[in-house]
Design a protein that fits this description.
The chain has 22 helices and 8 strands. It has 455 residues and is an alpha/beta fold. α12 crosses α14.
């Protein structure tokens, strides 16, 4: 493992050498060659003295750790320590880490599986992930508060708790609290009922990191908003990190006092959008690897089938995978194919979202072969990008036949034709639908092909 860490550091040094200038490189990095340890996702490097360590931490650490995300498949961070610091840290860790980590985890309300290592970055969440890593590396310094927004089930809670878990792993003395807004409201209501306001205030103000989920539920809770405002103000003044999630931008929050929503924009806001198809497949691959399942037993086609049917909610996407794996484990004689996958998922997929393309893929392939044989062209020509008339007309005929025979949505048909837009597919369909009434050649071609397809 240390050899892998050292290889990663060598690549990072080459990057630094080419980007920060030879003088800076020689002054700060040339003599750093030893990986002296690792702790979870953190690789520890030995530096000659405190002066160099402080310079690196202040000027280069964020850029270094950002660079590692581009060259490593796993989430890893570098940490720079002098030899004496490392020895002291190891002793403190040996004496205290286990006890304090358990206490920190139990009191933080964090789900330990919600880590950066298990979070899949993509185009839809790149800014949010990058900012989250910076916040975890330097809590209270760079983006405070950090406001994450997006639709339900898109990964906000996972990313937020990744920050908390990383901070606890990196600095066991930090006190982290994750709380759902509904629970915060209930806590305050209980404090008001029992006249235990001071206990309530101490509970939240004594933490170094406050992670508040679904802040939009503070709407219309005037007294609770007032108390949250006081806690926010105090923690912010003391440079304690605050991370907030919501289903919308702070400017669009309803029935929450303006002086509170305006403070949500003080630090950094980042949205998380729905993942595209390839990103959803990568999420499923990561889920498979986490569960220690033999990845070779689950084909790309099966993962793609799941990903095509669960588009807007990562939580539902992962739930669908769990359902498929469970059903298949109860049906050991059944090979897991795209068709079987859809059978397992049929009861939880809306009819208008059901991926009928996979069910009818063989029939459609046969139909395309018949059309291509009829017009004496290749399948690659009919589904490819060419706009030559000898290919366009057979392509339009094929689209019309697929639509009328199998009633597949235009967007789904487009996937068979080089991912063409649904509007293009719709236009092709209507050209043949209208054309057969005005052109005897089109009508004759359709009649001949329908007979061949039926046989």
């Amino acid at each position: 493992m240390l050899n892998n860490h050292l290889d990663l550091w060598k690549k990072t040094k080459q990057h630094l050498k080419s980007t920060i200038g030879l003088n800076s490189y020689n002054n700060y990095f040339n003599e750093i060659n030893d990986v002296i340890g690792s702790n979870n996702n953190t690789i520890i490097l030995q530096v000659p003295n405190n002066y160099i360590k402080n310079k690196i931490d202040k000027l280069y650490l964020n850029n270094i750790n950002n660079f590692t995300t581009t060259i490593s498949a796993d989430f890893v961070r570098f940490k720079f320590l002098t030899e004496s610091e490392y020895i002291k840290e190891q002793k403190e860790t040996t004496d205290n880490n286990l006890l304090i980590d358990l206490e920190s985890i139990n009191s933080s309300n964090l789900n330990q599986t919600y880590t950066f290592r298990n979070y899949v970055p993509g185009k839809n969440n790149r800014l949010a992930v990058t900012t989250a890593i910076k916040v975890a590396d330097n809590p209270g310094q760079l983006a405070n508060p950090f406001y994450i927004f997006g639709k339900v089930g898109i990964g906000k809670t996972h990313l937020m708790q990744s920050i908390g878990n990383y901070i606890i792993e990196s600095n066991y003395s930090m006190k982290v609290l994750y709380v759902k807004t509904q629970d915060f409201i209930e806590d305050y209501a209980n404090a008001a009922q029992n006249k235990s306001y001071q206990s309530f205030k101490n509970k939240y103000r004594n933490y170094d990191i406050l992670l508040v989920d679904d802040i939009q539920f503070l709407a219309n809770k005037t007294k609770t908003q007032e108390e949250f405002f006081k806690i926010f103000e105090l923690m912010h003044q003391e440079n304690k990190q605050i991370v907030i999630t919501s289903d919308r931008p702070s400017a669009e929050l309803k029935n929450i006092m303006e002086r509170l929503t305006s403070r949500f924009s003080w630090g950094m806001s980042a949205d998380i959008l729905a993942p595209d198809l390839e990103h959803r497949i990568e999420i499923l691959k990561r889920k498979v690897s986490i569960n220690l399942i033999n990845e070779n037993e689950i084909s790309y086609e099966v993962l793609k089938t799941i990903a095509e049917n669960f588009k807007d909610n990562v939580r539902e996407l992962e739930g669908a995978l769990n359902r498929v794996l469970f059903c298949n484990s109860m049906d050991l004689d059944q090979k897991l194919t795209p068709k079987v996958t859809l059978e397992y998922l049929a009861s939880i997929i809306c009819n208008d979202e059901l991926e009928v393309v996979t069910d009818n893929s063989n029939k459609i392939s046969n139909l395309l072969e018949i059309v291509c044989s009829y017009f004496n062209i290749t399948i690659s020509s009919i589904i490819g990008p060419s706009r030559k008339s000898e290919f366009v007309y057979p392509r339009q005929i094929s689209i019309y036949l697929i639509r009328t025979k199998y009633n597949i949505p235009y967007a789904k048909i487009g996937k068979f034709f080089n991912n063409r837009d649904h509007s293009t597919i719709m236009s092709s369909y209507h050209k043949i639908e209208v054309g057969q009434n005005n052109n005897q050649n089109i009508k004759k071609d359709l009649e001949n092909l329908k007979i061949k397809v039926e046989n």
